[in-house]
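Consortium newsletter contribution from the modelling node. Members have asked for a concrete example of what our holo predictions look like. Here is one, prepared for the S-adenosylmethionine complex that several groups have been discussing at recent meetings.
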Amino acid sequence: MEAGCSFGPYLSTCAGGLENVLLQELASRLYGVQVLSSHAGATVFSTSGRPEDLKALRAADNIYAYLIHKEGVPLDKEQGLAYLQAIAMEIDWGRALATFRQWNPGVAIIAWPSSNSSEGCSAALPRFRVTCERRTLKLPKHGYTSMEAAGWLGAGVGALLGWPVSMTHFDVELIATITDDEVLLSLSLLYSPRAKQNASATGPPDAANEMGREEEPLQAKAHHQSRQLYSHRPYRSDLVRTSLKPSTAYALCQLADIRPGHVVLDPLCGCGTIPLEAADFYGPSIAAFAGELLEDAVAKAGRNLAAGQQGGRPGPCDVIRWDATRLPWRDRTVDRVISDMPFGILCGSPKERNNVFPSVLKEIARVLVPGTGRAVLLCQGRKVRADLKRVPTRDFFLLEKTFSIDMEGILVDVHILQRTEVEVVVKPRLTPNRRRDRSRQRKGAANLTGLPAAFVDPME
Ligand SMILES: C[S@@+](CC[C@H](N)C(=O)[O-])C[C@H]1O[C@@H](n2cnc3c(N)ncnc32)[C@H](O)[C@@H]1O
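And here is the predicted structure:
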């Protein structure tokens, strides 16, 4: 990797709790990285790496030019808004815009009128807007709304630099994140409507539903595509309502410690984000499998697989329809199970999910290679935590680590499980004929087309 000029500093975002994965990736992929801070999903760092190197980061949701971080923002309306308005004066605008121009060479902008030395007469002051995300976790509520905070921050910038505001045809977008009495201000590098003439430039920043997953209405897709670093993954053609962010899927794969030659399985894959991310990143050194109960999700995972095969460097991946409580899969053949289990109001009722979880866990234990197999599961709820400690699950798995990640304000558990040597005793199987008759009656029977024979349970 070549060293370039030093731009930045940068702000990189990921789900809170997964910063360590991002830090490892920064250290291994970028030149001359210096981490200035890393907390609650926000990592500030400098590097002399080029934009292309930064755009290739997988653990990051997004990359911004870092502007400022301040603590002690007053909570009451009058003082808080005055404080926010004054922040513009403390920012190194020249450096931030130099970074923006490096990322968006097609957008000719200058920071202030007197700074126009080499830009030529086509360069102009940028039109801008401020977008604010605001929440209180430990302190009483703010006395102002997000709109008011954005308005007063913008007023300070406008007064200082003379930049005109445009909510829809802006050149640069400032992102303010206010948490309790802290404000983090950054400048969007990946999205400028003027640089991307065809992108629609309206609407709020990417919507995330109440479970911290992505909601991506089709009409918002073009807009969304250019706004997140991970949106450019080649396999991202069709999403389900509960799609996981590819950056989070990448982090789960890293936590699973995937090695060359591994068989990697997601038995509840939705539109296939986790196995497709694994196939896209690890390439042909692994074999990935994506299974799902719902026909619609299976079809989407299939289309994503096809899109990934056209646009990426995908390793082998198969998409299968099945019921994860009765996997049609041979015992002791899988090295890694990585799955984003159903949780939240978008994924069935709590009762249904609670009933399904123990059976899925038992199937995961059965198919994993004893002793070396590993599972990384994203789950939520006390019942799930209790199930993991209950016999027989606790005999099959060593609970190596549990920690929470913050998915847009919702805390979700990541469980890292090491498969023990304890054998899973399977109930005697039905004869093939009786089983076939039963499975015909069963809703969501497996469609095994395309599944390599080596892994298929002969009873299926
Ligand atoms: C949280 S979503 C997975 C989302 C996925 N990671 C993605 O990015 O699209 C959980 C999925 O489990 C599926 N599911 C629920 N019960 C299942 C079962 N018994 N067998 C297989 N899949 C099941 C649901 O249909 C849902 O798509």
